[in-house]
Amino acid sequence: GFMTRHERKIFDELKSPHLKYWVPFVWFGNLASKARKEGRIRDSVDLQTMLNEMNKYRSWCSLLFGYDWVGIPLVYTQVVTLAVYTFFFACLIGRQFLDTDQGYQGHDLDLYIPIFTLLQFFFYAGWLKV
Questions:
Q1: Half-sphere exposure in the Cβ direction for 41 (13 Å, CA)
Q2: Are 53 and 89 contacting, i.e. CB atoms less than 8 angstroms apart?
Q3: Quick check: 115 and 95 in contact, CB under 8 A?
Q4: Percent of the chain with pLDDT over 90
Q5: Which SS3 state, helix, strand or coil, does residue 96 take?
Q6: Are 98 and 107 in contact (CB under 8 A)?
Q7: Measured between alpha carbons, how far is 22 from 58 in angstroms, rounded to an integer?
Q8: Nearest to 53 by CA among 20, 28, 19, 23
Q9: Measured between alpha carbons, how far is 47 from 33 in angstroms, rounded to an integer?
Q10: In 3D, which of 73, 71, 69, 77 has the Cα closest to residue 21?
Q11: What does DSSP assign to residue 14?
Q12: 83-95: per-residue pLDDT in tens?
């Protein structure tokens, strides 16, 4: 809905080995300059402000493109996976409730279902998969 059918056709026919996120910015710059010449934008300061904001947005898109361009090394994902699972198992053992006043022989682990630890693990593992 942001492009006309003619603009979409031009956009699709444009050959580029990379993403074409910059094409609408070029179109916007040309249209803004044309509008200034025709008097639709009355002040050059307004035009400059619009172009500065457009350039800021374009630089954010290019930064996002840079994040997509460079993949995360496999070692980082392995370290984070190991950290999540290690944290979960440490919490599973460390958050057990022991009542030492009861005089348990050998201080065995008290068995119960650690609901909040499981929820925390599911959230962390879900974020890890994302």
A1: 18
A2: no
A3: no
A4: 32
A5: coil
A6: yes
A7: 7
A8: 28
A9: 8
A10: 69
A11: -
A12: 888 988 888 777 7
CA 1 distance to own-chain centroid? 24
Residue 9 carries which side chain, given as an amino acid letter? K
Contact 14, 20 (CB under 8 A): yes
Q: Dump the DSSP string for 16-29.
A: -SS--TTHHHHHHH
Cα 17 to its chain centre, rounded Å, is 24
- Determine the average pLDDT of the residues in 47-70: 88
Q: Helices then strands (H, E): number in the chain? A: 5, 0
Torsion of CA 32, 36, 39, 42, to 10 degrees: 100
